Amino acid sequence: MRPAHSFVVIVAALSLLTCATWSQDKTATALPVSPETQSCLDCHKSVTPGIVEDWLTSLHAKISPAVAIKKPVLQRRISNEAPPEPVLSNVVGCYECHGQNPTKHKDNFDHFGYKINVVVSPQDCRICHPLEVQQYSEGKKAHAVGNLSDNSVYHLLVETIDGMKTVKGTTVTRAPATENTKHETCYACHGTAIEVKGSKTLATSLGDIEVPDLTQWPNQGVGRFNPDGSLGSCTACHPRHSFSIEIARKPFTCSQCHLKPDLPAWDVYRESKHGNIMMSKEHEQIWNSVPWKVGQDFRTPTCATCHNSLVTTPEGEVVVQRNHDFGSRLWVRIFGLIASHPQPKSGNTSIIKNQDGLPLPTTFMGLAASGFLIGADEQARRQEEMKKVCRSCHGSSWADLHFVKLARTNAEADSMVLAATKLMVQGWEKKLADKTNPFDEMLEQKWIKQWLFYANSVRYASAMAGPDYATFEYGWWDLTRNLEEMRDHLERYSAKKK
Amino acid sequence: MRPAHSFVVIVAALSLLTCATWSQDKTATALPVSPETQSCLDCHKSVTPGIVEDWLTSLHAKISPAVAIKKPVLQRRISNEAPPEPVLSNVVGCYECHGQNPTKHKDNFDHFGYKINVVVSPQDCRICHPLEVQQYSEGKKAHAVGNLSDNSVYHLLVETIDGMKTVKGTTVTRAPATENTKHETCYACHGTAIEVKGSKTLATSLGDIEVPDLTQWPNQGVGRFNPDGSLGSCTACHPRHSFSIEIARKPFTCSQCHLKPDLPAWDVYRESKHGNIMMSKEHEQIWNSVPWKVGQDFRTPTCATCHNSLVTTPEGEVVVQRNHDFGSRLWVRIFGLIASHPQPKSGNTSIIKNQDGLPLPTTFMGLAASGFLIGADEQARRQEEMKKVCRSCHGSSWADLHFVKLARTNAEADSMVLAATKLMVQGWEKKLADKTNPFDEMLEQKWIKQWLFYANSVRYASAMAGPDYATFEYGWWDLTRNLEEMRDHLERYSAKKK
Amino acid sequence: MRPAHSFVVIVAALSLLTCATWSQDKTATALPVSPETQSCLDCHKSVTPGIVEDWLTSLHAKISPAVAIKKPVLQRRISNEAPPEPVLSNVVGCYECHGQNPTKHKDNFDHFGYKINVVVSPQDCRICHPLEVQQYSEGKKAHAVGNLSDNSVYHLLVETIDGMKTVKGTTVTRAPATENTKHETCYACHGTAIEVKGSKTLATSLGDIEVPDLTQWPNQGVGRFNPDGSLGSCTACHPRHSFSIEIARKPFTCSQCHLKPDLPAWDVYRESKHGNIMMSKEHEQIWNSVPWKVGQDFRTPTCATCHNSLVTTPEGEVVVQRNHDFGSRLWVRIFGLIASHPQPKSGNTSIIKNQDGLPLPTTFMGLAASGFLIGADEQARRQEEMKKVCRSCHGSSWADLHFVKLARTNAEADSMVLAATKLMVQGWEKKLADKTNPFDEMLEQKWIKQWLFYANSVRYASAMAGPDYATFEYGWWDLTRNLEEMRDHLERYSAKKK
């Protein structure tokens, strides 16, 4: 039969009337809009119409917390049973978010008589979503800035890559990385530290207005330092101002940061059978349903399904609970310096100290800093949690063997890194490279590729069954080729030294 | 006019009732479900709800073979005029597939009183789809495992890439590749050899159950060795358990294996005009229609359109017949060691022997093993078959010149490989590399890239008109750059030797 | 609520009747079809059904210019107030386009009694769309062929990459690039020079027909030399024969040419928040609406939104006017040899001469050829034009700071290129490479990568906020790594020379 996509236009013509009417009612007062939000809307409808229209599509604009908390527990998207007035009884509009906690916000400013925060933080979202904020704050994402900047090894890697280089003869000198470039690169995803430098005047169509002058803005990195002292940015995944659960559940969201060559989660997913079905059947999956019913709402998982969504059977039995700590169903960490290892106990990984005294979960030779990592029981518990999702659609044996395979692959990838590290150590010993900075010379850069690009790819390819990232696209081909290049480099330069 | 996507919700609200009702009726007995399948459904509805729900969306769940074979010939998706009972009169459910040929299946086991196969094979699908299985079995896909493992050259390439390396001093030693890693890499797409090691006990919510213990499972590689002795996996392209023709027709399916850097069919397609229209108009194409009517059902082709689908004009005249031998419309082979060449006569390519005595379709210098390859007439016939598809939307001159261009490009790409091979031969002659294994040294790895990545990209880019894969993305830029690197390597090392 | 995608089928079943009827009426004469076009349709409906069906979906097939020009100005897609008869009163069919300006078209031929042009050119489209053709002709796209072939530097780069290489000993000799390969590579996007070599006979189902024999055909490059002497190809973005505004507005269209590693506009967009929302919400955006209303029709921009579409507020106030000169809202040029620079004044960039006498917008050391580039006022005006689009959805401060960041990043990327150029210059001075051709040796190829791949990526990543192209995917990681490789190469080879 001919599908309907081309023909729904006919229905739409009729529906349009209804919808247009509804849309007008909404900006008026079909649902209770606070007077403060109404003031915002009156101007911003013209000044930034895109924001207002986007918000109008959000659930925030269509329901008040008072109504939302009366839904059956599994259908709720709100975790505070009793948000205070005036938030409770109005739709969640501009002022309900941008007007929270004004005294804590260094970015608060007087805007036509209202005290407005430029940046909305998890601390503000917490008024309705305390459980989600609590979970999130415990994970690695919330600590993403400090995990980079407070870790001397990672910090050196960032500086080595991002620092401006100047050339004199054949000497290359590196200056410290600028805030600008760090903002564009690592901290674009990890989050910037937004501070208030003072205020500035903007010329607008409504005359000059005085606004806070922010550093490292705009940014929606997952671990952003906010001007109210909180960490993170909910809009990293629930983008402004629709706060769409559909967008957060689709893999494109995660793909913004989790992609090749260093972290090819999106790339592997896309070439996997799961990804292929998602791309083919996206239009038939039901993206806004809460809870998310396996088989009925979706027939292939996305990142969110396996890693954090509340999933139930079609009959409403819980398969896994929602959790905004995205590591909560993960037992092994397949990304990060140098080898795979059990997940860290704390979301703050800069506190780790390994047996070489470095703030890394393993030594360069792969020895795990076990005291800072979860134990076997917790690993088993988390793997079982993940398998519950798998077993919704796959037999037990299928799921079991998949993870046996992953464990073996992690071990093999670790060994291929260890081989490279052994060559690297010889390079350092033979003074072919200077270990003071283990990241800035040609041989070292090849070594970095071995673990950061190729071993990571092989592990992700195994975890999500994307064959090419195991093989020719940053996979075993490159693990092998790169090792040979390192060997050749070592042999050639050693010979020259003699 | 405002399109309808946002508004069909209104219609859906009404339709939901109908559909939900239908859905319940189905798991009950609106259509004839065999008692065996009903038993499966009764448990698996709770145990693996994703599978059951997926199956409910399939045509298998909506029609019995008895009804399906009464459709007009061009509309049929079934090629056996008279499947035996009880398959004939029931919908095609769990038992109809997992209960076939139990004595042939070493993976058959007693499951609550039923004799169940874990793995469904083409031999099982054959009961309703004999023509498709026959065609498939003649092509290269069905032979994908042996074409790799029984070919000494390819086998060595796999071992060289996948073998675990260990380092002592500057010596790198290679161990044989593990089954695990071969399963993750080459054989993930080609298919694994699934064998039954014995049985094992699984703890489930219904108590302990005894199941076959399979090797190299899970896998859906196109040439999988199944426990019933058959080759291939229909679910490689028609994934479980919806067996969707829509999914098989969309390019995402093929993209799982046919992708850069070695086989950039998907990547080239995506950047081509065809791919761009597909991505832009996917929602208006009609993906489930049989036959597939050019212009009316689709306005841009996908992989399936050109390579295997039954295509007719809107008025029902056949343009090309369906064929599950995916090489049946191909005259030239633009992928594979070393140079382009006429398609092989047999899907089993491990039987080829070239003039150097190697099981390759050409020698390293590009000389074709003509006896094993199709002749000029057959090449012309197949090209004409492909052009019929082109001419549905393009003038004759357009189509003709496109393939003239492809032939020239293949020749040029072959020449650029030959240039690299000539450098390689010098490397071997000068003992800068050891030809015993032509795949494991640095110069050899560059040579591999020349044919496996860059020449392939240029040819695919021509075949499907994706400009960047001809140019900067693994194209002429890299053919040229890599040749210069090989030349430089050769000159530098030769000098050192003197 | 459950979305409707799965259920609209029910509605479609009804709509199908209506639509099928409409479709038949159309190929008949529901709207006025010229007798010439009707003759075309009578045959081509069978001969090339894909073209006819595609056209039937176009606006060209659904409205006559006489009706189109009566629409309110902002809704018009036609810029000639009075096209001549018979175009005016008929739908725009085969003959209305392929029959224009027959005497100017060297590709005109007698086709069953009609004088038909094979190639439809902007000159032909101009009869209804003069403003668009005028704007287009002023931009760089219309000059894309000459900008490459008439520029001695670019021409040498093309020849160096595309020329066939042959090997004798360790000497690599380069032959001139063939037309065939240039057609497949650079000129696939830039456009080929289509000439009429004579005529040829095609055997068709209707007997032999005589058609023009064209060179470098097929091609839809943006600056194509057409057989009527005009430049460009409207079908590069509005592909045949639906001329869809939806396709042109979707980023897949631009992705055909603007992609990594040299020009990663598409790649950066896809990984940006804008791209992620587009991919997630494509189905809810309204792609055919004219004017395009921010927030209401779309909630995230595509390439077209920012670069050339007519955008209004939901209330119909113009944000930016449509402009088919795609550089009209651009102030800085972040792509092109060597450093970023103000946009050129003329779309014809081959006329530029820099202070080294080369036809490049900057010298190798980055000094701008200011006389040929727009000044500060024009730059400011254009940036303000672009910011109008940003401010539809973002606060002023957000938009301002975004572009401050871009300017800083351009400067840093330029500096990282300059560092590489300084190493390159030493290489030339020390005779480690021969500057006569600055593009063909190993060190030079690394230098090319620094500006053409890595610096471009960093700039695009900043312009459109795609973090990975600033970091590990051709970003700062590669700028740094490649510089170290160049340094190492220089030091090693210098040592050898001593």
Describe this structure in words.
3 copies of one chain form a homotrimer. Chain A starts with 7 loop residues before the first helix and ends with a helix. In chain A, strand 8 and strand 9 form a beta hairpin. The longest helix of chain A is centred in the C-terminal third of the chain and has 34 residues. In chain A, the strands form 5 sheets. The first copy, chain A, has a 3-stranded mixed sheet with strand order 7-8-9, covered by helices on one side. Chain A has a two-stranded antiparallel ribbon with strand order 1-2. In chain A, strands 3-4 form a two-stranded antiparallel ribbon. By secondary structure, chain A is mainly α. In chain A, helix 18 runs parallel beside helix 21. Helices cover 44% and strands 9% of the residues of chain A. The radius of gyration of chain A is 25 Å and the shape is globular. Chain A is built from 21 helices and 11 strands. The N terminus of chain A is likely disordered. At the A-B interface, helix 1, helix 15, helix 18, helix 19 and helix 20 of A face helix 1, helix 3, helix 9, strand 3 and helix 10 of B.
